[in-house]
Design brief:
It is built from 41 helices and two strands. By secondary structure, the protein is mainly alpha-helical. The chain has a two-stranded antiparallel sheet.
Amino acid sequence: MVETEKSLSPANLKKYTDEGRLPLNVKREIIPCLVESSVGCQENEELNGVTSAMLHEAFWLSPICESIFILCSELKPKPLQLSRAEIVLKEFYTFFKNDQKITELFAEMSFIQTDVEKMNASMCSDQLINIPDIVSNVLEKTSNEKWDNLQGDKYFKRLFEAVVVLIKTNPLFGIKKVDFSVLSYFISKSCKRAKCVKFVLSPLVHYVTNLDPDDYVARRSLWQLSANCPKEYLDTFVTSILKVCSSWKNVSSILGDLVIQCEICRHILFTKLVSDRYFEDDQLICNLLGYFLGPETSRLEIFDLFLTEVCKVWADPFVVLYVPYEQLLYINKIAALGIQKHPSPAEWGKRCSHRIMEGITIYLKSSVERVRVMGSYVGQLLCNAINKGAKSKLDLPKTSTTDHFIKQIDQLVKLYETQESIAPPDSKSSTNEDNKQGTSHEKNSIDENTKVTSKQNLDSDDDDDDDDDFTPYDMSNDTPQIKFQKSAYLQDIINGLSSSPSSDSAAKHTAADLFEQTIIDAKDIILRSDQVAIDEMCLDVAKVLMHVEDKYATPEFETLRVNALGSILQRQPKKVSGFLIDMFYEANFSIRHRLDILQAIRMAAAELSELKVDTSEDSRSNLDKGGNMEQDWRATVDQRVLAKTKFFHKVKPKKKIITENKFSQVCGSFFFPFLAKYDQPIATLRLLNEDSQVFSNLLYTMGIVLHYSVNTPCAMKMAKELIGDFCQQHLNHADACVRQSVWFCALVALTAVNSAELILADESLTDGFMKYRIAAAYVRENDPHSECRLLAEQFLVNLNEVVKQVSSG
């Protein structure tokens, strides 16, 4: 054995066992040594038994957080012996079979007194969440069913059961101080990592369903879990709770007054769950509205603001025209149920009556029948709820679409009312209901088995016929039948990308094929389109491309969408660049949208600045035939000489025609509007704080735009703005990618000017480059990031060459 292991004999370990705690420094030394000894003495059964017993006992002694952290580190080195992995996984497996120990682990993570304990608890929660990935990486291709409980959603469900037990026993308000942040971090991040959130959160939902309404201690602990949820995982946590809960009362029990206390939660419920996403489940709509309209009166004022935001989205003409039908149906359902259940709709209607009337006129003008019917019926509900005395009635057509939509609204209202009338169940009644449900599931499974066997018997009778005697057709030259007309115009792009599938399966496949073909052909259609049509419809096409979703899992969808955005930006740079930059600073766009905008800007700048060389023979003749251009006598002479010249080889020399740099006229509109708003605070975009990845991408894009603007009138002004406060403030940024982008911009600015006379003529440029020179000398020696050091060194080399030009001149 190892010397440290000898110092901890079974007798000494017994002393620590009686105390119930193993010192931290001893645990960090002894557990890796015991694992190593267990690997080395597997052939000696007696010695192996003693070592494994000591390892098991050392693992169970508190602090358990440190034990998990140490054992996870034992699984990370590569290559890893399978025997070593088996020993470590065996300890994990025995630990996760013991419910009491898992509960003690979470209690240990909750009772925190110092910052060091909080850091250890957060590291332990990260290791707990990463254990399924660690196990799958260790086992790799070997399939071992013995470790299934340590992988997938079964693992997370077992941990959630331990959290529920911890809340049930209520040690959270005991003697020790409780920190809910680690538990909230674990729950929210587990919701993001789990594949089936409903299965993982089922223990928590079952506990909340059977919770006594008078148990305020348990409710307060649940509210604390929600209130301490990290901001980056709050969206996933709130959406998962709304999806999984079977009643809006459960949502209210878990979230509490989070929408009042947290502005980010308000943004999620008001914007993301209304205008950015849609859900087909009616239960989520009931949970969302029931959370606002619950017995707690504190959320009713917030509900007025929520319904106003819904009405604003409902009456938006762009939403009616370009949003998919499923999302439009989702918005109309929220508006219909919200106005019917509002406690005082007349007072709310005074503020939003003009929006309602505008929305009704927009829906009546729609050319799609089901959209027109849907908007008219919801508008009628809104008007009747506001004016209780005189009820208005629109003349709706009596068709199947009208009846189907009215039936959907009635089912939604009944679902909400049934949940409103249900009392919280007792524990005895809940167990009886579970038993009844179990027997009904067994009966259904028996009936399904009998149906399957009967179908198999019928199939076996059909298989008796032998079709081998028939000669097959020659289908080698067959082509797939196209069920739709291929897109050829800009309006076809708008229609193809904004169309929504119907319930019919055949029509759904056709819509998917049309969508895929449209997004593939969008770039070519835009580049081939007439300039008059581009000027008229460029903004409409850009809006559709920005808001389109990957509804049918199209391969390389993001790349195709960005290519189409870059092509429309290339055809109409000024209009589209202004629109995209405004969208970049909008609040209701994701990080993915903002990065796509920057990529489209870079692509368009590269395409517009390219000096295209046309070597085709028809290009000269096409230029000469133009009615507005005078025929050049030199071109005529060159053509006649070329026609009379005899060549001894077959290839004739091709005339090169070089076009102008189109980017020089519009480079300013790609650059300066970005700098006007980058430091303005937005709720969902904080470039100077946590969204450093987007900010570094923005800096890189500005450098690329300046690179393609070399030898243009704006280049000097752009270089001065770029190396000014925009980049100087971030030379010592904490994120390495931002520092790397700053030095890239400094290099591009130096190469864009690249003249000693111009630099010396402008004092701001001279002072700016001297500041960068001092900073580069420090970065070259002390920056931990290698790319930053290389860029700083290259900047010094280029600047020294410019200084040599001054000294030589």
